[in-house]
Amino acid sequence: MDFEVTTGVMSRSAQKVVIYGPEGIGKSTFAAHFPNPVFIDTEGSTKHMDVSRLPRPTSWTMLQEEILFVKRERRFQTLVIDTVDWAEILCVEDVCSKAGKKGIEDFGYGNGYVYAKEEFGRFLNRLTDVLDAGIHVVLTAHAQIRKFEQPDESGAYDRYELKLGKKTQSQTSPLVKEWADMLLFANYKTISVATDDSGKKHKAKGGKRVMYTAHHPCWDAKNRHGLADELPFDYGQIAHCIPILGTAPQPAPKQEAFPPEPIPPVGAPAPQNYAKEQEPMPAAAASVPEAKTAESSSAVALDDRQQAMKALQDLMDKDGINRLQIQKAVGQRGYYTADTPIENYTLDFIKGVVIGAWDQLVDHILNDEVPF
Question: pLDDT tens, 318-327?
Protein backbone atom coordinates (compact mmCIF):
# COMPACT_ATOMS: atom_id res chain seq x y z
CA MET A 1 0.00 0.00 0.00
CA ASP A 2 1.33 3.44 -0.96
CA PHE A 3 0.99 6.47 1.28
CA GLU A 4 1.33 10.16 0.56
CA VAL A 5 4.21 11.84 2.38
CA THR A 6 3.77 15.51 3.28
CA THR A 7 6.34 18.02 4.54
CA GLY A 8 6.31 21.45 6.10
CA VAL A 9 4.23 23.15 8.80
CA MET A 10 0.46 22.53 8.64
CA SER A 11 -0.55 26.01 9.78
CA ARG A 12 -4.05 25.89 8.28
CA SER A 13 -5.39 23.14 10.52
CA ALA A 14 -8.11 23.36 13.17
CA GLN A 15 -6.82 23.87 16.72
CA LYS A 16 -7.55 22.02 19.97
CA VAL A 17 -7.54 24.57 22.80
CA VAL A 18 -8.20 24.03 26.52
CA ILE A 19 -8.68 27.10 28.74
CA TYR A 20 -8.93 26.69 32.51
CA GLY A 21 -8.86 29.01 35.48
CA PRO A 22 -10.80 30.17 38.55
CA GLU A 23 -14.50 30.93 38.27
CA GLY A 24 -15.41 34.38 36.93
CA ILE A 25 -12.10 35.17 35.29
CA GLY A 26 -13.64 35.31 31.81
CA LYS A 27 -13.04 31.92 30.19
CA SER A 28 -16.37 31.96 28.32
CA THR A 29 -15.83 35.55 27.12
CA PHE A 30 -12.35 34.62 25.92
CA ALA A 31 -13.72 31.59 24.01
CA ALA A 32 -16.43 33.78 22.42
CA HIS A 33 -13.70 35.61 20.43
CA PHE A 34 -12.74 32.50 18.46
CA PRO A 35 -13.93 32.48 14.82
CA ASN A 36 -17.74 32.09 14.50
CA PRO A 37 -18.23 30.02 17.68
CA VAL A 38 -21.19 27.94 18.84
CA PHE A 39 -21.43 27.00 22.52
CA ILE A 40 -22.55 23.75 24.11
CA ASP A 41 -23.22 25.35 27.48
CA THR A 42 -23.25 22.47 29.97
CA GLU A 43 -23.66 24.70 33.03
CA GLY A 44 -25.63 27.72 31.78
CA SER A 45 -22.80 30.23 32.09
CA THR A 46 -23.47 32.05 28.78
CA LYS A 47 -26.98 33.33 29.58
CA HIS A 48 -25.78 36.93 29.65
CA MET A 49 -23.60 36.66 26.54
CA ASP A 50 -24.66 37.38 22.95
CA VAL A 51 -23.43 34.09 21.45
CA SER A 52 -24.78 31.18 19.41
CA ARG A 53 -25.57 28.22 21.64
CA LEU A 54 -27.16 24.80 21.47
CA PRO A 55 -29.64 23.59 24.13
CA ARG A 56 -28.06 22.68 27.44
CA PRO A 57 -27.45 18.90 27.25
CA THR A 58 -29.29 16.95 29.94
CA SER A 59 -27.69 13.60 29.09
CA TRP A 60 -24.47 12.21 27.69
CA THR A 61 -26.36 11.02 24.60
CA MET A 62 -27.71 14.52 23.94
CA LEU A 63 -24.19 15.98 24.21
CA GLN A 64 -22.89 13.47 21.63
CA GLU A 65 -25.76 14.35 19.27
CA GLU A 66 -25.00 18.07 19.55
CA ILE A 67 -21.35 17.42 18.67
CA LEU A 68 -22.46 15.38 15.65
CA PHE A 69 -24.83 18.20 14.63
CA VAL A 70 -22.01 20.78 14.63
CA LYS A 71 -19.80 18.48 12.58
CA ARG A 72 -22.56 17.64 10.10
CA GLU A 73 -23.95 21.14 9.56
CA ARG A 74 -20.59 22.97 9.38
CA ARG A 75 -22.30 26.31 9.99
CA PHE A 76 -19.73 27.34 12.58
CA GLN A 77 -15.95 27.60 12.68
CA THR A 78 -15.48 26.89 16.39
CA LEU A 79 -17.16 24.48 18.80
CA VAL A 80 -16.91 25.55 22.46
CA ILE A 81 -17.80 23.09 25.23
CA ASP A 82 -18.27 25.19 28.34
CA THR A 83 -17.30 23.47 30.62
CA VAL A 84 -15.65 20.08 30.15
CA ASP A 85 -15.79 19.30 33.90
CA TRP A 86 -19.59 19.40 33.77
CA ALA A 87 -19.49 17.27 30.62
CA GLU A 88 -17.46 14.68 32.55
CA ILE A 89 -20.28 14.45 35.10
CA LEU A 90 -22.69 13.46 32.31
CA CYS A 91 -20.15 10.87 31.12
CA VAL A 92 -19.84 9.22 34.54
CA GLU A 93 -23.62 9.22 35.04
CA ASP A 94 -24.08 7.51 31.66
CA VAL A 95 -21.49 4.82 32.40
CA CYS A 96 -23.12 4.07 35.76
CA SER A 97 -26.70 4.06 34.46
CA LYS A 98 -25.91 1.67 31.60
CA ALA A 99 -24.38 -0.76 34.06
CA GLY A 100 -27.14 -0.31 36.65
CA LYS A 101 -24.75 1.16 39.22
CA LYS A 102 -25.46 3.92 41.71
CA GLY A 103 -21.91 5.29 41.66
CA ILE A 104 -18.54 4.88 39.96
CA GLU A 105 -17.12 2.87 42.87
CA ASP A 106 -19.92 0.29 42.74
CA PHE A 107 -18.14 -1.50 39.87
CA GLY A 108 -15.44 -2.74 42.24
CA TYR A 109 -11.69 -3.20 41.72
CA GLY A 110 -11.44 0.23 40.08
CA ASN A 111 -13.27 -0.97 36.95
CA GLY A 112 -15.61 2.03 37.01
CA TYR A 113 -12.72 4.44 36.53
CA VAL A 114 -11.48 2.41 33.57
CA TYR A 115 -14.93 2.47 31.92
CA ALA A 116 -15.20 6.25 32.49
CA LYS A 117 -11.72 6.80 31.02
CA GLU A 118 -12.56 4.71 27.95
CA GLU A 119 -15.85 6.54 27.35
CA PHE A 120 -14.18 9.94 27.83
CA GLY A 121 -11.49 8.89 25.37
CA ARG A 122 -14.20 8.13 22.81
CA PHE A 123 -15.62 11.62 23.51
CA LEU A 124 -12.25 13.21 22.67
CA ASN A 125 -12.09 11.10 19.50
CA ARG A 126 -15.47 12.54 18.44
CA LEU A 127 -14.09 16.02 18.99
CA THR A 128 -11.10 15.10 16.82
CA ASP A 129 -13.59 14.20 14.08
CA VAL A 130 -14.95 17.76 14.42
CA LEU A 131 -11.41 19.08 13.97
CA ASP A 132 -10.99 16.94 10.86
CA ALA A 133 -14.08 18.70 9.48
CA GLY A 134 -12.18 22.01 9.73
CA ILE A 135 -13.78 23.28 12.96
CA HIS A 136 -11.74 24.50 15.95
CA VAL A 137 -12.60 22.93 19.31
CA VAL A 138 -12.31 24.87 22.58
CA LEU A 139 -12.83 23.27 25.99
CA THR A 140 -13.15 25.47 29.06
CA ALA A 141 -12.68 24.14 32.59
CA HIS A 142 -12.49 25.33 36.16
CA ALA A 143 -9.25 25.17 38.11
CA GLN A 144 -8.60 23.70 41.53
CA ILE A 145 -5.64 23.73 43.90
CA ARG A 146 -4.27 20.32 44.85
CA LYS A 147 -1.36 19.24 47.03
CA PHE A 148 1.31 17.74 44.79
CA GLU A 149 3.83 15.24 46.15
CA GLN A 150 7.16 14.98 44.34
CA PRO A 151 7.98 11.40 43.23
CA ASP A 152 11.51 11.71 44.70
CA GLU A 153 9.97 12.73 48.06
CA SER A 154 11.84 16.05 48.00
CA GLY A 155 8.73 17.88 49.20
CA ALA A 156 5.10 18.74 48.53
CA TYR A 157 3.52 21.95 47.30
CA ASP A 158 0.24 23.36 46.01
CA ARG A 159 -0.43 23.52 42.29
CA TYR A 160 -3.35 24.41 40.00
CA GLU A 161 -4.96 21.60 38.00
CA LEU A 162 -8.02 20.96 35.88
CA LYS A 163 -11.07 20.62 38.11
CA LEU A 164 -12.40 17.32 36.86
CA GLY A 165 -14.11 14.72 39.06
CA LYS A 166 -12.44 14.23 42.43
CA LYS A 167 -12.50 10.45 41.93
CA THR A 168 -11.98 10.32 38.15
CA GLN A 169 -9.55 13.21 37.65
CA SER A 170 -6.44 11.03 37.61
CA GLN A 171 -7.94 9.15 34.64
CA THR A 172 -9.54 11.87 32.51
CA SER A 173 -7.34 14.90 33.19
CA PRO A 174 -4.21 13.43 31.50
CA LEU A 175 -6.32 12.59 28.43
CA VAL A 176 -7.49 16.20 28.07
CA LYS A 177 -3.99 17.64 28.54
CA GLU A 178 -2.44 15.23 26.03
CA TRP A 179 -5.22 15.88 23.50
CA ALA A 180 -4.84 19.68 23.50
CA ASP A 181 -2.65 21.70 21.14
CA MET A 182 -2.84 24.62 23.56
CA LEU A 183 -3.44 24.33 27.30
CA LEU A 184 -3.85 27.84 28.71
CA PHE A 185 -4.06 28.59 32.43
CA ALA A 186 -5.75 31.92 33.24
CA ASN A 187 -5.34 33.53 36.65
CA TYR A 188 -5.16 36.82 38.53
CA LYS A 189 -1.56 37.94 39.00
CA THR A 190 -1.12 39.02 42.58
CA ILE A 191 2.02 40.60 44.06
CA SER A 192 2.90 40.39 47.73
CA VAL A 193 4.31 43.69 49.03
CA ALA A 194 6.04 44.20 52.40
CA THR A 195 4.31 46.73 54.63
CA ASP A 196 7.02 47.15 57.27
CA ASP A 197 10.80 47.47 57.36
CA SER A 198 11.29 44.00 58.81
CA GLY A 199 9.54 42.40 55.85
CA LYS A 200 7.39 40.22 58.09
CA LYS A 201 4.09 41.81 57.15
CA HIS A 202 2.77 41.72 53.60
CA LYS A 203 -0.34 42.65 51.69
CA ALA A 204 -1.53 41.61 48.25
CA LYS A 205 -1.64 44.03 45.32
CA GLY A 206 -2.52 43.69 41.68
CA GLY A 207 -5.27 41.45 40.32
CA LYS A 208 -4.30 41.76 36.64
CA ARG A 209 -5.63 38.90 34.50
CA VAL A 210 -2.89 36.91 32.78
CA MET A 211 -2.58 33.55 31.05
CA TYR A 212 0.27 31.08 31.25
CA THR A 213 1.22 29.05 28.18
CA ALA A 214 4.08 26.86 29.43
CA HIS A 215 4.50 24.27 32.17
CA HIS A 216 5.38 25.48 35.65
CA PRO A 217 5.69 23.58 38.94
CA CYS A 218 2.55 25.40 40.11
CA TRP A 219 0.32 24.77 37.07
CA ASP A 220 -0.10 22.79 33.85
CA ALA A 221 0.13 24.66 30.54
CA LYS A 222 1.56 24.14 27.06
CA ASN A 223 1.49 25.48 23.50
CA ARG A 224 2.97 24.51 20.14
CA HIS A 225 3.28 28.02 18.73
CA GLY A 226 6.28 29.44 20.56
CA LEU A 227 4.19 31.80 22.71
CA ALA A 228 5.71 33.70 25.62
CA ASP A 229 5.33 31.92 28.95
CA GLU A 230 3.09 34.70 30.33
CA LEU A 231 0.69 36.90 28.36
CA PRO A 232 -2.23 39.23 29.09
CA PHE A 233 -5.49 37.25 29.17
CA ASP A 234 -6.69 38.61 25.85
CA TYR A 235 -7.67 36.69 22.72
CA GLY A 236 -5.59 39.02 20.58
CA GLN A 237 -2.47 37.44 22.06
CA ILE A 238 -3.21 34.09 20.38
CA ALA A 239 -5.33 35.22 17.40
CA HIS A 240 -2.44 34.63 14.98
CA CYS A 241 -2.42 30.96 16.01
CA ILE A 242 -6.10 30.40 15.12
CA PRO A 243 -6.61 30.33 11.33
CA ILE A 244 -9.94 31.24 9.71
CA LEU A 245 -11.11 28.03 8.07
CA GLY A 246 -13.87 27.36 5.53
CA THR A 247 -17.17 25.87 6.70
CA ALA A 248 -18.87 24.68 3.49
CA PRO A 249 -21.89 22.43 4.30
CA GLN A 250 -21.36 18.72 3.66
CA PRO A 251 -23.93 15.94 3.13
CA ALA A 252 -25.11 14.28 6.33
CA PRO A 253 -23.59 10.84 6.98
CA LYS A 254 -25.85 7.82 6.73
CA GLN A 255 -27.17 6.77 10.12
CA GLU A 256 -26.53 3.25 11.35
CA ALA A 257 -29.49 0.86 11.32
CA PHE A 258 -31.19 0.11 14.62
CA PRO A 259 -29.31 -2.89 16.08
CA PRO A 260 -30.98 -6.28 16.46
CA GLU A 261 -30.54 -6.02 20.22
CA PRO A 262 -30.31 -2.95 22.51
CA ILE A 263 -26.91 -1.85 23.73
CA PRO A 264 -26.10 -3.93 26.84
CA PRO A 265 -24.87 -2.21 30.01
CA VAL A 266 -21.11 -2.16 30.61
CA GLY A 267 -20.01 -5.47 32.09
CA ALA A 268 -23.52 -6.92 32.12
CA PRO A 269 -25.44 -9.36 29.86
CA ALA A 270 -27.89 -8.09 27.25
CA PRO A 271 -31.11 -6.82 28.87
CA GLN A 272 -34.00 -9.26 29.17
CA ASN A 273 -37.72 -8.52 29.06
CA TYR A 274 -38.05 -5.42 31.24
CA ALA A 275 -41.76 -6.01 31.64
CA LYS A 276 -40.93 -9.08 33.71
CA GLU A 277 -39.80 -8.99 37.30
CA GLN A 278 -36.15 -8.08 37.50
CA GLU A 279 -33.63 -10.15 39.45
CA PRO A 280 -32.55 -8.54 42.72
CA MET A 281 -29.27 -6.64 42.68
CA PRO A 282 -26.28 -8.16 44.50
CA ALA A 283 -26.08 -7.08 48.11
CA ALA A 284 -22.90 -5.08 47.53
CA ALA A 285 -24.41 -3.05 44.72
CA ALA A 286 -27.79 -2.60 46.35
CA SER A 287 -26.51 -1.55 49.75
CA VAL A 288 -27.34 1.95 50.95
CA PRO A 289 -25.38 3.75 53.68
CA GLU A 290 -27.11 3.36 57.04
CA ALA A 291 -27.25 7.13 57.51
CA LYS A 292 -29.83 7.38 54.71
CA THR A 293 -33.43 6.93 55.74
CA ALA A 294 -36.10 5.27 53.59
CA GLU A 295 -37.61 8.69 52.92
CA SER A 296 -34.32 10.19 51.68
CA SER A 297 -33.64 7.15 49.44
CA SER A 298 -37.10 7.49 47.94
CA ALA A 299 -36.49 11.20 47.29
CA VAL A 300 -33.18 10.43 45.52
CA ALA A 301 -34.86 7.79 43.34
CA LEU A 302 -37.65 10.22 42.46
CA ASP A 303 -35.11 12.89 41.54
CA ASP A 304 -33.24 10.41 39.31
CA ARG A 305 -36.46 9.51 37.49
CA GLN A 306 -37.38 13.17 37.02
CA GLN A 307 -33.95 13.88 35.53
CA ALA A 308 -34.19 10.87 33.22
CA MET A 309 -37.66 11.89 32.01
CA LYS A 310 -36.43 15.46 31.45
CA ALA A 311 -33.45 14.14 29.42
CA LEU A 312 -35.75 11.91 27.38
CA GLN A 313 -38.20 14.76 26.73
CA ASP A 314 -35.33 16.96 25.50
CA LEU A 315 -34.31 14.27 23.00
CA MET A 316 -37.94 13.82 21.89
CA ASP A 317 -38.39 17.55 21.33
CA LYS A 318 -35.13 17.80 19.39
CA ASP A 319 -35.94 14.96 16.98
CA GLY A 320 -39.73 15.39 16.80
CA ILE A 321 -40.48 11.99 18.31
CA ASN A 322 -43.66 11.45 20.36
CA ARG A 323 -44.50 9.02 23.14
CA LEU A 324 -46.73 6.79 21.03
CA GLN A 325 -43.91 6.18 18.55
CA ILE A 326 -41.56 5.12 21.37
CA GLN A 327 -44.20 2.89 22.97
CA LYS A 328 -44.92 1.23 19.60
CA ALA A 329 -41.22 0.50 18.96
CA VAL A 330 -40.76 -0.90 22.48
CA GLY A 331 -43.94 -2.96 22.13
CA GLN A 332 -42.75 -4.51 18.85
CA ARG A 333 -39.82 -6.02 20.69
CA GLY A 334 -41.92 -7.20 23.61
CA TYR A 335 -40.23 -5.35 26.44
CA TYR A 336 -43.56 -3.75 27.32
CA THR A 337 -46.92 -3.73 25.61
CA ALA A 338 -47.45 -0.87 23.17
CA ASP A 339 -50.10 0.67 25.44
CA THR A 340 -47.77 0.78 28.48
CA PRO A 341 -47.03 4.47 29.31
CA ILE A 342 -43.38 5.45 29.32
CA GLU A 343 -43.83 6.53 32.94
CA ASN A 344 -44.32 2.86 33.83
CA TYR A 345 -40.96 1.79 32.35
CA THR A 346 -38.22 1.04 34.87
CA LEU A 347 -35.63 3.76 35.38
CA ASP A 348 -32.84 1.42 34.19
CA PHE A 349 -34.74 0.74 30.95
CA ILE A 350 -35.33 4.44 30.27
CA LYS A 351 -31.69 5.43 30.89
CA GLY A 352 -29.91 2.32 29.61
CA VAL A 353 -32.01 1.41 26.56
CA VAL A 354 -34.31 4.24 25.44
CA ILE A 355 -31.81 7.09 26.04
CA GLY A 356 -28.69 4.93 25.67
CA ALA A 357 -29.70 3.73 22.16
CA TRP A 358 -31.55 6.90 21.13
CA ASP A 359 -29.87 7.33 17.71
CA GLN A 360 -30.79 3.79 16.65
CA LEU A 361 -34.29 4.11 18.09
CA VAL A 362 -34.96 7.31 16.10
CA ASP A 363 -33.61 5.72 12.93
CA HIS A 364 -35.91 2.72 13.49
CA ILE A 365 -38.97 4.92 14.06
CA LEU A 366 -38.39 7.28 11.13
CA ASN A 367 -37.50 4.55 8.63
CA ASP A 368 -40.09 2.04 9.88
CA GLU A 369 -37.55 -0.75 9.81
CA VAL A 370 -37.99 -4.31 11.02
CA PRO A 371 -38.55 -4.29 14.79
CA PHE A 372 -35.33 -4.30 16.75
Answer: 888 888 888 8
Start-to-end CA span in the chain (Å): 39
- The four Cα atoms 320, 325, 330, 331 give a dihedral, to 10 degrees, of 180
| Domains of the chain in sequence order | 16-241 (3.40.50), 257-279+301-372 (no CATH)
What is the C-alpha to C-alpha distance for residues 251 and 239, in angstroms, rounded to an integer? 30
Q: Whole-number mean pLDDT of the chain?
A: 80
CA-based nearest residue to 120, from 62, 171, 44: 171
Amino acid found at 76: F
| Res. 194 pLDDT band, cuts 50 70 90 | low
Q: Would the pLDDT of 276 be above 50?
A: no
Nearest to 174 by CA among 238, 103, 124: 124
> 82: buried, middle or exposed (CB in 10 Å: 19+, 13-18, 0-12)?
buried
